[in-house]
Amino acid sequence: MISRRQFLGGVAATATLAACARPQPAGAYEIASGERDGFQATFAELLADAATDAGGDLRLAVRYTTGSLENLSLLASGEVLVGLTLADSAAEATTPLLAIGRVYENYFQCAVPMQSPFRSMNDLRGQAISLGAAGSGTAQTGRRVLEASGLTVDDVTIRPVSLTTVLDSLRDGTVAAALWAGGVPTPAAIPRPGHGPDGGIRLLDLSAEYVQMRARYGPMYEPVSVPARAYGDTAETPTVGVPSLLVASPDLPDAVAGALVDILIDRAQDLIPPDTVGAQFLDVRSLIQTAGIPRHPGAVEAYRRHHG
């Protein structure tokens, strides 16, 4: 008869052998992220650090970009094999794309100066506004938000500003309103001494735009709210949410895709930026909901290991 100690020792040995039998990824890979101080870039930095801390020979280097559209272009060209993107941008991609997992919720946030007379997107007719940095997924989705408000690009002046200059652009009147997508709070948009309008910023309620976008484009868009005091003395504000996906080229080795899933699951707490209050999707059941983008075979195998 086998003893309990022998049984437990056998289980441990089997687990060790199984781990050793899995291909161990090695090499350095760039991950296309987003603008510095934006949520995608911050998440990519944490993912790269977690890959290093996990040991082994897999290394990730963060490539800063203007956002989802540039990331998808880099993936299509083969310049990078891993990147982050808004789910709706991924759905519009014309080249093969595979998902590693859904990682967090992006909140569309449209800011105006606290003392601004504008209370809705529709109030911005005739104004200069930013729908996001050129090359960002926000700029693409921003047009949908604008149309859902009853306006067209002919009703406003589109003046793209980068996330890092949103506060200053609102202060100096470059734009009357600025839209971006990110986690909550987005560090670059937090008012601080020397940056931002006098009195701070206020977010516009986008709940009506959400209803129109959901009806036209489907459940990819979700109802979310930015909590009160996310950006100083701001009220809770309903808005539009869309998932952010970690995606890959079909050329990414299965072992690397699987290792990324392991990091997302095993080191989830290390991947949440400090002071974040927005929704995260770093558990197996949420990670696999990739908004219709097929999952990478290496990721599929890793999820089976974790969840059966």
UniProtKB/TrEMBL annotation:
Please give the SUPFAM superfamilies that the UniProt record associates with this protein. Answer: Periplasmic binding protein-like II (SSF53850)
Q: Which residues form the signal peptide?
A: none
Q: Name one Pfam family in it.
A: NMT1_3
InterPro entries per record:
TAT_signal, TAT_signal_bac_arc, TRAP_TAXI
Name the record gives this protein = TRAP transporter substrate-binding protein
